[in-house]
């Protein structure tokens, strides 16, 4: 494979290996926000993507798929357990999400994290051309920027952090806090979803490493001098074109009508779409909805909640317990309130293709995004993009990155169950005129600030810092 001018480094490759109709092995584009965000840009620049293929103990040679050169990084089963399920998802994930679940600190997990990050860095350093650019993504690979710089000081390095960055009082718990900060500061530009996240990061740099920080600029000691690094917010978005195209298709609109009919044509359909994760506030949403039914403020004949909870990290204990809790809560509410013709909650523990998701968005009168902490939440933007009729209401947690941009949503603190119940009622009872006014504003924001605008702004900042 020829060296690439532009290399993306992410935990996963943008494809999954699946079995084709004749039993042959085929690679299919992965679901997920990062792939959806970067794939269009990668096709344009003819770059390379470094990542894990998703299966343990499998060694693969570089290959091409969908116009992108793919460089697989192998992981052993033990590394998957310690680096990925352990340090990334049982240490960093809960710590960076405000310790909603208690983080676990194990030295062997950290050692695996260092080892795997070095392997990713070496793969990226080998794949990038002289003077090229390496763009590292997310919390699984926070040490990679510094490691790449040590091997290839000629390249420009960017890092984008897709999840929240915690306040210093929480971040300081991490035993390897200084090593992680230095790892991130190997990048020329460190991007975050929210200005608040960038501020927390800069505070940690100032307090832990004592580097000079002026506004978003950090002076990073290097050799006998200093190197400038920039840390600021670049809110990620979606590729709006496929959502607009699907929302306009007659068959998708017919499917939306079919969904409504299958639910008994209630006056209002409420929708939640989440990975099954304790950060998403699914329990809070279901509790609030159940109380509205119990109090008679909502009637079972008039409203249905459709909750899509796609499987996630099913070998991590916290997620196993979460699934049990949610399914028990759904069963109780349905058992207490269902009639022969109407169901309170339609719970769907599976993933769906984009076509079906757009049909669900079109069928839903109210979109409930009640995350307790979220880097961005692209589901909120997907819902808004599909509402070409300027109808529908977005109920949006103030603890999502999307809340900074989507200001015409009905904002909510999901920890406040009474406030959440009132917000749901506001959404259910909102007039068509008020829906239209809010949705037109939301759609302007999402359509004007799409994924191309996001990647362009980040890469422009990268070029500017490197030029200095």
TrEMBL record:
Task: Fetch the Gene3D superfamilies from UniProt.
Answer: Glycogen Phosphorylase B
Q: By its UniProt entry, which CDD domains does this protein fall under?
A: GT20_TPS
Offer one Pfam family short name for this entry.
Answer: Glyco_transf_20
Family designation: Belongs to the glycosyltransferase 20 family.
Q: What is this protein called?
A: Trehalose-6-phosphate synthase
Which source organism? Microbacterium aurugineum
